[in-house]
Amino acid sequence: MQSGLHVTTARKRHPTNLRIAILSSPASRTSSVLIALRDGEGERVTLSEIVDALGPQAFALLFVVLGLPNCLPMPPPIPLICGFLLLGVTAQIVYGRKTPWIPRRLLDRSVARAEVARAVERALPYVRRLEQWSRPRLAFFDTPARMRLTGVALVLIAVSLLTAAPIIGQIPPGIAICLVGLGLVERDGLVVICGLAVGAVGVSLSASFVAAVVSGLTAVL
Description:
Number of strands: 3
Order of helices and strands: EHHEHHHHEHHHH
Transmembrane segments: 78-95, 149-169, 189-220
Distance between the termini: 43 Å
Strand order of the largest sheet: 1-3-2
Protein name: Exopolysaccharide biosynthesis protein exod
Keywords: Membrane, Transmembrane, Transmembrane helix
Oligomer: single chain
Shape: globular
């Protein structure tokens, strides 16, 4: 089976089935979305199916879905593709959009469901534990202006994902994006703050990696 992302052929997709699976679950929470993605039909899942299924919480849940693959050591180009998508989505929050817009060409990209299932299985116990502990509090992102400020921080984290060291460097930004997404879904400002703190570590590590690469190239030249 071919792993990674690629452009799908013109086969019939069933985003409605995925949406039904999520809405019919006992509680429409992040864990419900992840389980629906894991157990959906077909060998591959497109970004279009994911976005169609997320509904009104599309921004927050996209952070979780796109950040999750980067919480594990992943070879290129998965971190790069997720990073570009996250950069586009977070920039739209800064711009003030209420729902995400993604170009059709990117919506047709797909990932092997086996890869999704592997990431979900690893993350699900932690997500459920966090959902049990989480509750609405410190909702500093309730106003458009504060949400845009959060978006600026997320843009920096997305950039750090693009410039991270290969294989494992994307893990801190990936965890940060997931925590922020979970915090937004649960309306838990404390989780969002924890995510931004982890993101600051990721930004610092990526900046150090870029500086080391530039320094090495300068020394050689």
